Each structure stands twice: as C-alpha cells, then as structure tokens.
Description:
Elements lengths: L8 H29 L3 H18 L7 E2 L2 H14 L1 H20 L11 H20 L3 E3 L5 E3 L2 H20 L9 H16 L28 H33 L5 H17 L6 E2 L1 H9 L5 H16 L2 H4 L4 H15 L3 H5 L5 H16 L2 H23 L1 E6 L5 E9 L4 H6 L9 E11 L2 H16 L3 E5 L3 H9 L6 E2 L1
Parallel strand pairs: 6-7, 7-8, 8-9
Antiparallel strand pairs: 1-4, 2-3, 5-6
Helix pairs in contact: 1-2, 1-3, 1-10, 1-11, 2-9, 2-11, 3-4, 3-8, 4-8, 4-9, 5-13, 5-15, 5-16, 6-7, 6-13, 8-9, 8-10, 10-13, 15-16
Amino acid sequence: MFDLIYKTKETLRNDLLSGLTVALALVPEAVAFSFVAGVEPLVGLYAAFLVGLITAIFGGRPGMISGATGALAVVMVSLVADHGVEYLFATVVLMGILQVLAGAFKLGVFVRLIPHPVMLGFVNGLAIVIFLAQLSQFKIQDATGSLSWMQGQELYTMLGLVGLTMAIIFFLPRFTKAIPSSLAAILSVAGIVHLLGIETRTVADLASVGGGLPSFHIPSVPFNLETLKVIFPYSAILAAIGLIESLMTLQLVDEVTETRGRANKECFGQGLANIVTGFFGGMGGCAMIGQSMINVNSGGRGRMSGVSAALFLLFFIVVGSGFIELIPVSALVGVMFMVVIGTFEWSSFRILGKIPRADAFVIVLVSSVTVISDLAIAVFCGVIVSALVFAWEKSEKIHSEEFVDEEGQKHYLLDGTLFFGSVQSFQDLFTPREDPSKVFVDFKNTRVVDYSSIEALTNLIKKYQSQNKEIFIQNLSPDCQSVVKKAGLSYSVQN
Length: 495
C-alpha cells in the first residue's frame, strides 16, 4: 500500500541520501516561513516534519516533498496577527478537512484542465520567487535594527561560498554519483568554513532549531459559529492554494520522472497531513517545488525519500540542532540557486516567438502574477485567459455550407461547435426572412453542448415559425438530442 519495500539496496540508498539532502535544505526554509507567518520557528519545523512524513506515506506522488511553504505563510499573517496562533491551528485542521473532501469528491482530476502555458508560467514564476527569497540572505541588520545589503568582505565571502557550492553541485556528478551533489556541497562548504575559520552567517544566526517532539494539542479556541466565521475563509483559501501548488508540482515531478502520480490521492494525503499538523502545533503546508526538485535531482524517487527527509528533520530538531546550526547559510543559498537554474524553463524564451501569441501572453502573465501576487491568483488568471481565448477561437470557427435543392428547399450544413461563445456567429448564419418555406439544418458536423446553444436553437425555430416557415433539424447526435429533449423543445428532430 505504501510502496516502502525496495527491490535494490541502491534505490534505498539513493532515497536515504536524497532525503538527508532535502532535510538539510528544509531547515532554513521552514524557519524563514515561520517568520513570514509570524509564529515561532518550531511551528514551521513541526509542520515540515509532519506534513512531509504523512504526505510521503499517504500521498499520490512518490518522491514529492511537502512542508511549510511561503505561498501559505503569506495568507496566515493577518490571521495570526489578529487572532493568535491557536486560531491558526484550528484553521489548519479545517483546511485539511476541506482538502480531504476535495479528494473524496475526486476534484484532483481538474488539474488536467490546466493548460500547458499555465504550467510553464507556474514553473518560471515559482523559480523567480525562490530566487528572490534567497536574496534576503544577503541582508543583515544594521545598528538601527533595519535590514541592509551586505558590503565589503562579508559580501565577497558570501558570494564566494555560494559560488563554490554551485560549482560542486555542477561538476561533482561528472566524476561520481555515489553521493548527491547537493549533500556533498553542503558538507564540503561547511567543513571548509569551520576548518579555515571563515566568518560567515550560519543557520544559528537565523534561529535556534532545537526542540522536543511535537505533542498532541487541541486548538484553544471557542468551538462555536463565531470561530467558524473567522477561520473558514482562511481555511478555504489555504486549502485551494495548497492543492493547486501540490497538484501542479505533482505534474512537474511526473514530467521529470516520466511516471504518473495520483491527483485525488494526493488531495487526501495533503488533507490528512494538515489535519494532523493542526493538532500537533504545526502551521500547515503543501508540496514544495524547490525541495521536490532537490529530491528528484539527488536521486530520490520512492516514498522513502520523503519519509527519510521528515525523519532526518525530526532528528535535527530533537538531537542534532547543534550540528545543523553550524551549516553556513551560503551553502543552502547555493543549493537553492541551482534549484532555480534547474527549475526555470529556459526553453520558454526560445519558443515565445514560435507559439501562438495568446499562449505566450499566458506564460508571461502567470509568471508575473506568481511573482507579484500568489500562485492561486496566477493559475486562476491563466486558466481564465486560456478559456477565453479558446472560446473566442471556437466562436470564430462555426460556419455553414448553404444550397437550395431542386424542390426549392434550403439546406444549411453546419460545421463547428455550438456553445455560448459561438451563439452569435450561429445566429448570423441564418436569414429567416429571405429563406424559402422549407429549411433543413444539418448538425452532422456540429455539437450542441450547453443551454445557451439550446436557447439559440429555440430562438432560431421561433424566427422561422413567425415567418410561417418550416424548419427541420437533421443528424443531431444522440447526446445532443437528449439535451434538446431535456430543454422541452417542441419540434421534430429528423435524422
């Protein structure tokens, strides 16, 4: 059931090593997102552990990493500021329930409706967001307490260590793949820094990551309608953002690994993870594209990669915090920069001038909105624009061939799709006043798909009847006939 049994020791070793790499990179991100949400670092670390562990076991995409994310953290800020962290825990529980319901009602399949240009924009936008997030590590607090950019020797040291990390990740696979290059880079740079006594920022400068095991805790909020009114809007938004980011990351991992994940099962896994997290003092989470790419690129393919990442993270929190706090921030920034380079679809620059302008616009739009606003709005905008473009193109393509037979009867041979977007074009095809007494409309190459189409067909019949002329409908498909009958139209359909 959980796909935790391995056929080869090499595959298990790859998953364990990639899990260790992911866990090391998870620590500063979980801490950073905790600060964004306005909660203690342990709240983000517990979320990274619990969400990562449960989705790895019960989710629909082996090899995908989940945890606390910035997309969710920015939504939590106002809730925590106005109502406190206990309301956040209650919100996360309800968020998980909504996601489980989404899986139960099989809403995960709707991710297939997201067009490829939206996917490209999503990937590029998130790569830019990840890059911009790393730039904050180049800022330090000055004497006044405000953040300012590093300068002088401190900046040069940071850049040098980041460059060294990236160089190790790039060149090491050419010599050996026995150890994930990202893991080797982190350990190597950490060793160099401490052996040579190089002064640079470490994880300890961000926050302490030490703590105990997460404990069961029922959110201390009133269980009444007023509380529901407060938390439900946040829960709905968080559930939607979490599922969108998770399912689109699932698609990306599918493409990279050339395998197929299960969207509805992932909805269930994400929901279950957030329910548990809310009861154990975590801030909730979803799939993480950056960490998932680190895992996949490091050789992690199975569920054990996610399980081991979560368990290693827990080990760091409970036992190994002292070691983790020694890791230079520059090494982790270098890893994330390489993730950005590997995630960004550089081919999109090459194809922008070759694909339809509407698709190119969608790619740029989704990327921009992802950076400026958030993922959910970006995907929504991309899908809406793509749908409008599709509707416009389809509305332009409905047409007919017309002829008058030997008996003086006029025939309309339709071609295209009759739906709300093509109704006006459909109506413009006919001339009831000029047509003869008998008219035949052939739907052999046309589909009637919605109520607007039925309404347009009804109005057309009425126009001919008002002119005391007969109209006959031919070759209407069986499914279209059922739509017509359900609408209660009183005319004969001829085949």
